[in-house]
Amino acid sequence: MPLPSAPLRKLGFLTIGLFDGADPGPGHQSLLEIISLGEQLGFDSAWLRHRHLQYGVSSPIAIMAAASQRTTRIELGTAVTPLGWENPLRLAEDLATIDILSGGRINPGVSVNPPTRDAKVLAGLYPDTAETEDFGYERVARLLSFVRGDAVTDFAGTQGIEVFSNRVQPHSPGLIKRMWYGGGSLASACWAGENGMNFLTSSVVKAEESEDFAEVQLSHVRAFRANHPDGDRARVSQGLVVIPTDTASADQKAKYGAYREARLPRTAAPQGPARMMFAPDLIGSSDQIAEQLYAHAAFREIDEVAFALPFSFDHADYVQILTDMATKLGPALGWAPAV
After folding, report:
1. What was the pLDDT predicted at 120?
2. Domain 10-332 has CATH 3.30.420.240
3. Domain boundaries, given as residue ranges, for the chain
4. First to last CA, the chain
5. Under DSSP, is residue 174 helix (H, G, I), strand (E, B) or coil?
6. In angstroms, rounded to a whole number, what is the distance separating the alpha carbons of residues 39 and 36?
7. How much is the CA Rg of the chain, to the nearest whole Å?
8. Cα separation of 199 and 111, whole Å?
9. Residue 205 belongs to what H/E stretch?
10. pLDDT in tens, 55-72
11. How does pLDDT run across 189-204, given as a tens digit for each residue?
12. Which pLDDT band holds residue 177 (cuts at 50, 70, 90)?
């Protein structure tokens, strides 16, 4: 197995938080238990994937708030929150509140584009303003301004018996340094770098200058850092789907293999008008996965990961996968658990 040029510095995981629509409680409790397990295993971070009008986490804000009170060390993030569904001012208040409650452990990841599932969704969100809403990068810039503590109004002081601030309260000074942009295009990578954000790159990218997934992802990482004030020190996290099978049972291995095979055809060529490319899921022993990662051009230039958990598995499967990640795959990549 090739030796890494540098050890993996941060190991995280990403989950959708699946639940049964007829009985959503157990799924949400399972998610909180998985995050607590992640902390016990020494993971550096746990990330929530936003899902609206589906049977996955629709409110990462609420989940992070609950998880912040069950944990003491593990960082909590979103990968990502689509800002087309959010009011940047209100979101800034929620994020700052949770960051204060967690002791400065929140890593909000965001992205842009309008809600596009159907016209009724857009009408439900913005019945009177859908045509005038800005769903581009300016929406992110507004959120960053509010999180940074820039003035929202011209007035600060006492009015009657009430005291008002001219910026979002509470203010969490370190939060601005932990804002992430989730991008799959060269333009997004450049914009995130120019605006001093951290960069989340996942298992989905646009086939712009190549049809080789690793080459495209590498170009995004390099473009981001080339445009970031911190240059090569700018933070990038990679989020491939990774399924170690070291301690998996025969039934689990069969389930995991079937999952990968069902998703494999979409990785053969760019998909749809946007020419989206999907990375194959990595499955096998930790040594096998580590070898594949070291051969991945983009992985070799990052030192943080948030490996994505498969969407549709059972609680026991996630326990096995996370345990193997922390005790076998992480060490194979040079990572040591947080204490």
Report:
1. 87
2. no
3. 10-332
4. 28
5. coil
6. 5
7. 20
8. 11
9. strand 204-206
10. 999 999 999 999 999 999
11. 999 999 999 999 999 9
12. very high
